[in-house]
Amino acid sequence: MARVMLTGGAGYIASHTATVLSERGHEIVLLDNFSNAERDVPARLRGLIGREMPVIEADIRDVDAVSAALAAHKVEAVIHFAALKAVGESEADPLLYYDINIIGAIRLLQAMQAQGVARIVFSSSATVYGQPDASPIREDAPTRVQNIYGRTKLVTEDLIRDLARTGKLRAAANLRYFNPVGAHASAVIGETPRGVPNNLMPYITQVATGERPYLNVYGNDYETHDGTGVRDYIHVMDLAEAHALALEHILANDVAVTVNLGTGIGVSVLDLVGAFERATGRRIPLNIAPRRAGDVASYYADPAAAAAIFGWRARRGIDDMCRDAWAWQARRSGVNDL
Ligand code: NAD
Ligand code: UD1
Questions:
Q1: Which of 125, 153, 233, 295 to mutate to test the pocket of ligand 2 (most atoms within 8 A of CB)?
Q2: Which of 128, 227, 263, 325 is 20 to 30 A distant from 113 in Cα terms?
């Protein structure tokens, strides 16, 4: 059992992680500035978990506020989710991304150091690999960031590795997520993209509700099994379980690890659409569109390190991801799908 602070605690991945941590007996403290989270997420989480948890409304760049929260709640480890995550926005406003993602991480690490909190799990991204030579991708593959968002993730990983190497952190896990999708099986929490979704699964679910007329398939002439882009979609609850195991690993061992979190299975756009239609009985009209700038044809994880180090592997398949993503979106959009 540990007392853990989740920065960005009201966000998509953190809120799902909170349910698993709580089930496993950990005490959770949420810190969020609610810049990209709905105000009632903590209340919904309390309902799901069945107990109270401290919620601190603060910015990760506010060293005094974060420091005070770490001290007040006797926090032993931090899982650092808080960040901005839109690739296009990062290219439009690099300094905003450096400020929140990199300066924010530095301020958080300063607050942790001031309070003697020396263990961190960090939300990194497979985007650090950029254009990979081949898939499956191992953690020792070259990192070739292709956008500002990816740069902020790689820099933060490097900062954390440096602090671990110099003994300023006792233990750290940089977790490189592949493509998180889906929602808690209760449909009480899930992903709430702002505006038009950039990512595939939320777009599909909004076509299914009728909010959008069709899905643009960005390219069907890639060198993949059906010409459409291949990715490694991972159920957010599998990701949540990985965080719990990563946390428990770094509480028990003074180590610094960098680990992929994916299923190891490559799924194309058309594969995902087919699975969604089968899982939900909804039809998704398609429009074949030009390739999206900056897209990679195919990438998926080699998840062997996570299995060897944390004893973790993804258990949920794309049917579960589609069903749970749909249940969440249908509930939010008031679609009666019983
Ligand atoms: P999210 O936007 O739902 O969650 C981030 C949370 O951080 C939000 O609740 C937001 O209000 C909060 N936040 C933002 N800036 C803050 C600040 N300055 N101070 C305090 N709180 C702040 O995003 P998510 O999808 O849950 O992503 C969580 C983490 O995982 C991010 O670091 C993201 O870069 C990373 N990641 C996400 C994906 C993905 O596809 N969702 C993939 C790879 C990595
Ligand atoms: C995108 C980001 C990546 C980020 C990840 C988070 C870019 C270039 N990359 O990756 O940095 O870490 O989201 O999950 O933005 N697709 C369609 N139609 C759509 C939407 C997507 O065909 O409306 C296709 C894409 O071309 C791609 C696949 O679906 O082949 C997945 O796209 P997406 O969900 O945006 O994820 P990534 O491109 O992997």
A1: 295
A2: 128
